[in-house]
Amino acid sequence: MSGWVVGGPAVADDGEIREVAGAALVRAGGRWFAVDDECSHADCPFSVDGEVDGTTLICNCHGSEFDLESGAVLLGPADRPLRRRAVRVRAGVVEVETGGDGPPGPRP
Ligand code: FES
Questions:
Q1: Which of 17, 38, 44, 66 to mutate to test the pocket of ligand 1 (most atoms within 8 A of CB)?
Q2: Residue 103 lies in a domain
Q3: In a domain, 90, yes or no
Q4: 33-49 b/e (C-beta count within 10 Å ≥ 16 → b)
Q5: What is the CATH number of the domain that holds 53?
Q6: What mean pLDDT do residues 64-71 have?
Q7: What pLDDT is attached to residue 104?
Q8: pLDDT-based confidence at residue 108 (cuts at 50, 70, 90)
Q9: Domain interval for residue 57
Q10: Centroid of ligand 1 to alpha carbon of 20 (angstroms)
């Protein structure tokens, strides 16, 4: 079953990563994305060890890189994609869907 969890104000600088109900809510390229907040290599949390370059999410634990648009691995050692979460913006607040495999969030 899925639902929506408030992720805070919809205003943020590119590169910001927030932990929201087990998801990493990421501001990148002027858009919002959300993926599970565990690197698929060895579970490092992106909200602690993550970095953003364009729409690439980098795990600084061992250097894996992921495409935020698709969740795909761009650079190992990770060999599994990230599970994406849907994102929506309502009344100036960004929300993350719990559960599911949603598309990248809207451009507010
Ligand atoms: S835990 Fe992320 S690259 Fe190893």
A1: 44
A2: no
A3: yes
A4: bbbbbbbbbeebbbbee
A5: 2.102.10.10
A6: 96
A7: 47
A8: very low
A9: 3-98
A10: 20
Would 106 be classed as within a structural domain? no
Q: From the CA of 38, how far away is ligand 1's center (Å)?
A: 9
Q: Which two tokens stand for residue 94?
A: 């960004």
Confidence at residue 102, expressed as pLDDT on a 0 to 100 scale: 55
Query: Token pair 């980098």 is at which residue?
Result: 58
pTM greater than the 0.85 cutoff: yes
pLDDT at 107 exceeding the cut of 50 = no
Count how many domains the chain has.
1
The verdict on residue 77 lying in a domain is: yes
Omega prior to 77 cis, within 30 of 0: yes
End-to-end Cα, the chain, rounded Å = 26
Residue 85 to residues 27, 63, 69, Cα–Cα distance (Å): 13, 22, 11
Ligand 1 centroid to Cα of residue 77, in Å, is 7
pLDDT, one tens digit per residue, over 50-61 is: 999 999 999 999
